[in-house]
């Protein structure tokens, strides 16, 4: 009995190192069996090396999901494993999802991306220079990013998108719009107000109607702090000596730029929607993925909610990462090879970036060669 008690105690001391996995049956599993085994070993090594409580991964093609699997724990206190249905914070990958809403409004003739934002958000203060929705989506509007004195460290519930704009709406622009690139989640908060003004629908309802439901993204929605959310993981961070719960946050001020929850499987569905032009026309997708050029001709390598570039083998890629309290997400798409890779983790400061996503992709791309 004493031995059993000791072993049970070890689970609480070293829960992250336990081999806990959940998976789903992939399509074409025989063809990709070697790639899946290589990817499993690689993800396990990332999790153990970085002491990450839980990771979820999905890889898909234009025809469907090739592999989806959970590693480690969604909830360390209760030893609940990550499953393919566990919901993680997306952070700035929310911006990529928001871009589809912009595309839909442009297609429907309800939004002109190149007019002043006051056409859709009349209450937003006029600045020294006009700001357009396109500039907000491409981070060239001059809207600032976070500051240390912003009221976001302590949980504050903003009842509406417009209430959240008060954090930054009276601040001056950092530069003349179109002349520089300045990453700004607040720019996407304003963009969500533009979406509401153009659609006459609240942002979250519009996203569900035109993005989540059409792409069967049934596990994607807002990271509500004041409600129970089925399947939501617990969030963690490292203190100096141990793993602890991440600080409480309320993301209601930034749904569009960093406040959504989802699963890698849903993100792959989203990527497949982009590859297959499921909900948007090819010319609309091309608009979203066109890198913005500054006034002096400098290429920002950022479209509307997407980073545009090439991998280590010079293959075209589109991607976005998200870092947030208690979470890390990365979404990578190879448009020519029709491959999508999505990672999520429930810990702050996780080193899962473009190189790690490319490594997973290469296991599957090698199978197709």
TrEMBL record:
Pfam family membership, one: Beta-lactamase
UniProt keyword Acyltransferase present: no
GO biological process: proteolysis; regulation of lipid metabolic process
GO molecular function term, any single one: peptidase activity
Presence of the UniProt keyword Signal in the record: yes
PANTHER family registered for this protein in UniProt: SERINE BETA-LACTAMASE-LIKE PROTEIN LACTB, MITOCHONDRIAL (PTHR46520)
Protein name: Beta-lactamase family protein
Organism: Dyadobacter chenwenxiniae
């Amino acid at each position: 009995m004493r031995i059993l008690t000791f072993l049970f105690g070890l689970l609480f001391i070293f829960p992250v190192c336990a081999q806990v996995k959940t998976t789903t049956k992939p399509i074409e599993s025989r063809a990709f069996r070697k790639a899946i085994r290589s990817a499993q070993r690689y993800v396990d090594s990332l999790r153990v090396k970085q002491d990450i409580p839980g990771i979820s991964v999905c890889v898909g093609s234009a025809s469907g999901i090739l592999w989806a699997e959970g590693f480690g724990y969604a909830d360390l206190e209760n030893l609940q494993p990550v499953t393919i249905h566990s919901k993680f914070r997306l952070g700035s990958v929310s911006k990529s999802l928001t871009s589809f809403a912009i595309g839909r409004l442009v297609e429907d003739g309800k939004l002109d991306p190149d007019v002043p934002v006051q056409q859709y958000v009349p209450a937003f203060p006029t600045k020294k220079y006009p700001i357009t929705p396109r500039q907000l989506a491409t981070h060239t509007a001059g809207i600032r990013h976070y500051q240390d004195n912003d009221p976001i460290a302590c949980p504050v519930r903003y009842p509406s998108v417009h209430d959240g704009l008060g954090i930054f709406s009276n601040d001056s622009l950092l530069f003349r719009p179109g002349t520089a690139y300045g990453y700004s989640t607040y720019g996407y908060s304003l963009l969500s107000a533009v979406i509401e003004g153009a659609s006459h629908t609240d942002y979250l309802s519009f996203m569900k109607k035109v993005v989540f439901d059409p792409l069967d993204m049934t596990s994607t929605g807002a990271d509500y702090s004041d409600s129970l959310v089925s399947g939501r993981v617990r969030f963690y961070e490292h203190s100096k000596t141990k793993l602890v719960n991440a600080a409480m946050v309320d993301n209601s001020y930034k749904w569009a730029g960093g406040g959504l929850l989802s699963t890698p499987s849903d993100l792959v569905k989203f990527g497949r929607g982009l590859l297959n032009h499921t909900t948007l026309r090819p010319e609309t997708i091309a608009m979203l993925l066109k890198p913005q050029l500054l006034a002096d001709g400098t290429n920002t390598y950022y479209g509307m909610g997407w980073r545009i570039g090439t991998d280590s083998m010079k293959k075209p890629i589109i991607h976005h990462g998200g870092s947030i309290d208690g979470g890390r997400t990365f979404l990578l798409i190879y448009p020519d090879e029709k491959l999508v890779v999505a990672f999520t983790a429930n810990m702050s400061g996780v080193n899962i970036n473009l190189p790690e996503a490319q490594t997973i992709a290469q296991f599957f791309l090698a199978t197709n060669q």
